[in-house]
Write a structure and sequence with these properties.
Layout: E1 2-8, E2 15-19, E3 24-28, H1 35-42, E4 49-54, E5 57-58, H2 64-70, E6 71-74, H3 91-103, E7 109-113, H4 121-136, E8 140-144, H5 148-154, E9 157-163, E10 166-171
Parallel strand pairs: 3-8, 3-9, 6-7, 7-8
Antiparallel strand pairs: 1-2, 1-4, 4-5, 9-10
Length: 174
């Protein structure tokens, strides 16, 4: 279980919610509403007050690198490559590589920022199957997406960041 208690991210109200193993929470909202800032704060990449617990451990109880091995953030624009300069890869190739790299050492939580935005329909379908498999394997997924159909297919609940002052958590059928 990932439990967020009164997490204060700049520009957002204090947020509290839970996501269980095998589940996906979709974070929705207009551009600039704080979706990426929220994921980065959960991953302990950006400063935020409040509490983030994973399976009974609070993020400050672990060194940053250990927390990030358990709670993995995958950027919408990953810049990781094994044997070629990043500039030689297409945006879609970088995105697929970033997703594979994010799951390679089996973190407990995947924080996915627009995981299929640069992929064609076939690539997006394969990425979604990979995300579903991660949930079946017991991982917790929090995903930012502007794709309503994708959210409908993957998410068990939704967190709507309507603007800098409000948010709403609601269940969704997955």
């Amino acid at each position: 279980m990932l439990r967020i208690d009164y997490l204060r991210v700049p520009g957002l109200p204090a947020l509290s919610f839970e996501v269980a193993a095998h589940e996906c929470l979709a974070v929705e909202g207009p551009s600039g509403s704080g979706k990426t800032r929220l994921l980065r704060a959960i991953a302990d990449l950006d400063a935020a007050s409040g509490y983030v617990h994973l399976e009974g451990l609070e993020r400050r109880e672990l060194p940053g690198p250990e927390w990030r091995r358990r709670v993995r953030y995958a950027s919408a624009e990953p810049a990781a490559v094994l044997d070629r300069p990043v500039a030689e890869l297409s945006t879609g190739e970088r995105q697929r590589l970033g997703l594979v790299r994010a799951i390679a050492d089996e973190p407990r939580v995947l924080l996915l920022d627009e995981p299929t935005s640069a992929l064609d329909a076939q690539g997006a379908a394969l990425a979604e199957e990979l995300i579903k498999f991660q949930m079946l394997a017991g991982r917790i997924v929090i995903m930012v997406s502007h794709d309503a159909a994708q959210i409908e297919r993957l998410a068990h609940a939704r967190l709507l960041l309507a603007d800098a002052a409000t948010h709403k958590l609601e269940s969704a059928a997955a």
